[in-house]
Amino acid sequence: MAPVAAEVEGTGPAGFASGSGSSAEQDTRAPLKSSPAKTAWSHLVDYTPPTPAPVQERHRSSAASFVPPSSQAYFASTIYQQHRPLIIDAGSSELRAGWANDNRYALPELTHESLVSRYKDRKKGNQVLLAGAEANVDGPAKGAARSPWDGDVITSTDLLENLIDYALLKLGVASEGSVEHPIVMTETLCNPSFPRSLTSELLFETYGVPSASYGLDSLFSAYANGLEDALIVSSGHSGSHIIPLVGGRGDLNHAKKLNLGGSHATDFLLKLTQLKYPAFPTRVNPLQASWMRQEFCYVYTPATSSYDDHIRRLSNPDELAKEDRIIQFPFTIVEKEEKTEEELQRQAEKKKESARRLQEQTQRIRLEKLLQKENDLAYYNQVKEFKAKERKADYMASAAPLDREGFETEQALEQTTKKLEAALKRSRARELGAEDEPAEPPSFPLVEVPDHQLDEEGVKEKRRQRLMKAGYDARTRAKLEKEEEKRLEEEARLRDQAERENDPRAWASKVRAQYQESIAKAKDRIRRKEMLADRKSLAAQERMKTIANLASEKGDTSGPGSTKRKRGADDGFGANDDDWSVYREIGNADDSEEEEDDKVTLEQLERRLLDHDPTFTEDDTWSAVEARNNKITTTFLRGYYPPWDPDDVAQAHQIHLNVERARVPEILWQPSIAGVDQAGLDELVTHVLRNYQQDVTKRLANNIFVTGQHTQYPNFDDRLCQSVRATQSVDIPVRTVRARDVRFDAWRGMSMWSLTDDFQKTCITKADWQEKGADYLSARHAHRFTAAMYD
Predict the structure, then answer these.
(1) Which sequence spans correspond to the domains of the chain?
(2) How many C-beta atoms lie closer than 10 Å to residue 404's C-beta?
(3) Pair 779, 227: CB distance under 8 Å
(4) What is the DSSP string of 393-433?
(5) Can you tell me the distance from the alpha carbon of 509 to that of 499, in angstroms, rounded to the nearest whole number?
(6) H or E element: which one contains 243?
(7) Residue 70: which residues within 8 A CB-CB, separation 6 or more?
(8) What pTM was computed for the model?
(9) What fold characterizes domain 71-224+742-788?
(10) What percent of the chain has pLDDT over 70?
(11) Regarding predicted confidence, which is higher, 75 or 571?
């Protein structure tokens, strides 16, 4: 395996400062290697080729290291003696657990992923149960890993029980008997009563806790930061919420929810990556996609232009190169076997022999095509002669040769004949006109002598002279045709020069029209080739039917055993793969003379425009336009530098992120990009602010509290502030405030609040739960928590 560098430090994307930054800032890591003074990218301003970053699956945990105590130490500790509350911040991606603490900067004792893996070990035959980070220890564990949450709602209390068992085991709580600690847990906004009743049943019946309380993680985070009036914007793993906090109370009646979170952004990035690299040699798993999103994505801040303008700007390869970041996946270097001189020589000889056979095959195909054209021309001339000799009534009563050959009018037949004559002239000039002619014309004295006047040797010599005379006559005709073509070309050149000098604008317009027509013809031929290469395309199947019709019509149709079929009848030709192999052979043998002629015509038109039209430059040529398009595609897929090398195994295992870096976080403002029919964060914030009087609106807009791990994109706060300010009047100040620690502030708020008197007022005891049931628990919890938490 290729060496993998150490894990990248920090939680912000590479090349950006944590918290905020500009999308124009560059990656500060060292370049790939020393480069010459002038390189392919040296003309770019502030551009350094990015260093491939080794792919990872997760960031390092910033929680404090914790050594689980033994059961004896647990019973002897003040935690057990004081029955200190157990704080569980149960998120859909991460579970944080620990004992209540009044320290504002305390950290949970236990932090692990919300995953449970239950499977059977095939080698030992034992049932294996893993939770937390251990659920990703190997392949079988990853394949069986499950989460108790569906989105942000608990759907499996069995898996939740496994997670709580794992947390209690790590905290040193004895597994036998009841848990003699009150529990504070988080839940999602507008959590249905049924999942909450199942959770309460698990806590009271299974663990026997004396009391329990639930709350929203975003409200606990605001409590840890000491806020009274704020508009909470929280975006987590499964969704985003906007909750107004007025006078220390969470107004849930005016709260809004967006069904987009970190998991949706990760899935969106994973889909974009799979579409971009459909043949990527390794599998990109969701953990790796989540790391790429956290490390490299950023929110575009529209200081002078919109997000759409930013994407259009990236259509320039030079600008796209500055956004490029490279992720290196593991790969195995295959050592190439060095060949000896004898093997290299044998390989060279095989290549020469293959080239010779290919030239012979090409020459044979050209001769066959030439013969076919001569036969077709002779046949079409016979068709015209037949019409000229016969009377009109007799011709109409005959088999109608024009209709039979597929010609609608005589003009179509005449046009086809002229094309064949022109093609034959070109072929003869290519095949016969290149030989040197003798200074004096050769004589062939025996050609006119009758055979009975010659002996056996004379007859043989006469046949040889007849063949030589036929070749000489053909070359003479080709030479005369060449001279006539040169004369016509010279006349056309003089006329063209006169038009250009008399009316340059009209001349330029005419030549540009011819140039665009040639380009359209070339594009149409390329598109048709692609369609004919596809067996399922309509063009390929129509051509197959045409070939089958011609084969049936030109076969032997005489006699009682004739197999000629009617036009339009289907004989099943093309249903088997063998038929399509014949079709491919016919397609590969097609003459490319017209394509070569069109290419020459296109080059001639470009040269004329470059010489005489000052508005037409080298950048306007078709090759330059195609090169720019290919450059954009290459930069998008493979980066700007170093050049793409298909034989480089390391480059084949690289993913380039450029447009995706700004596109993935943009779904929070434009959910339609990810296929979600909802309003964005700025629009939801505007809807919430409209529900209050102006004085309350000013207090909320001036204190937009940002929390949640999915808000850690660079420029997130600036973009939210700018987009909300654009929807408010000038007299309403808009300001964003970020949580001190978006990851652990919710747990700290729960920890601090559980030690206050308000905690006892909102707790639901086991006796209340047994007496009044889940419906009472739901109503009482919602009223007491939102009303009493911040009193």
Answers:
(1) 71-224+742-788, 340-432
(2) 12
(3) no
(4) HHHHHTT-HHHHTT-SSHHHHHHHHHHHHHHHHHHHHHHHT
(5) 12
(6) strand 240-246
(7) 172
(8) 0.67
(9) Nucleotidyltransferase; domain 5 (3.30.420)
(10) 77
(11) 75
